[in-house]
Design brief:
CATH architecture of the largest domain: 3-Layer(aba) Sandwich
CATH superfamily of the largest domain: Alpha/Beta hydrolase fold, catalytic domain
Number of domains: 2
Radius of gyration: 35 Å
Strand content: 15-25%
CATH class of the largest domain: Alpha Beta
Helix content: 25-40%
Number of strands: 10
Structural class: alpha/beta
Number of helices: 8
Distance between the termini: 119 Å
Shape: elongated
Largest sheet: 8 strands, mixed
Length: 319
Amino acid sequence: MLRGQRLTLASHSFPVTHPLPVCYTTPNSMWEPSLTRRPLANRRTMIYLLLIPIVIIAFAAWLSWNEPRFLYHPTREIEQTPDKLGLKYESINLTTSDGVNINGWFLPGDNLAEDDQLTRLTVLFFHGNAGNISHRLEKIGIFRDLGVDTFIIDYRGYGRSEGVPTEAGTYRDAQTAYEYLTQQRKLKSRSIVVYGESLGTAIAADLASKAEVRGLVMEEGFTSTADVGQGMFPFFPVHWVVRNKYDTLSKLPRIHVPLLILHSRDDEVINFSHSQRLFAAANEPKQFIELHGGHNDAFETSALTYRAALSKFFAALER
């Protein structure tokens, strides 16, 4: 329309095909809820960010406090002694370097064929984290049948041993047992085979990395308690808070004696991969035997394989 002209409409009606645009004015009050949502969301985010470190610190404190309960499961009662199974034994009481009294058993092997050309072996046996020495009689019986002597101890806090278990304490207990064999029983260090099962593998490896021994056997072993804990709590950096580290993996390169590793793929406690990593880190000569069965009964489930592996290993060490 030109400037100055008027718009006139006819008297008759006609359909509107293009409605005129309508402009709405929105009151400021309609925008207020969306504006207040932003500071609320920011406050929630800040609360979450503050809660995360608090939860982490609380979990770390809980894990550190309960670590001994996860790691050590000692039993005080001696359920049976070797003589109940017809095995001869001596009950040995020792005092560690830090003044803790510990108890153990020495059992002679069934070796009637004396040969001056062969070395009579003594197995220094370190058991797992649960029970006590009275729960290992079946395995001790196997050692006896294979013709080797056995000295098994209870760590501090287990069985008739005094004190409370710790990583450093168990290492002292092992050293005390070793010194008993070499100093009081006058055994040659090269006649001692260190044997560990589960937790005992870490203790056996630690001793073998510091003292002269003939060989090392590790049954159902693990790389470190931190690695085991990481598998239990994959969302948390367990390595930061573990106090009892039992870092076996780092010690194996320092061990230069024949090594036998036994582990079951069916182990429901310690993953099979732990022993695979240990084997890869170990020096030659070394041997890996795969068993079948659970963590506590693989040596029985795979009895033939287990006995054959030990018999061959001991025979090679006796020469």
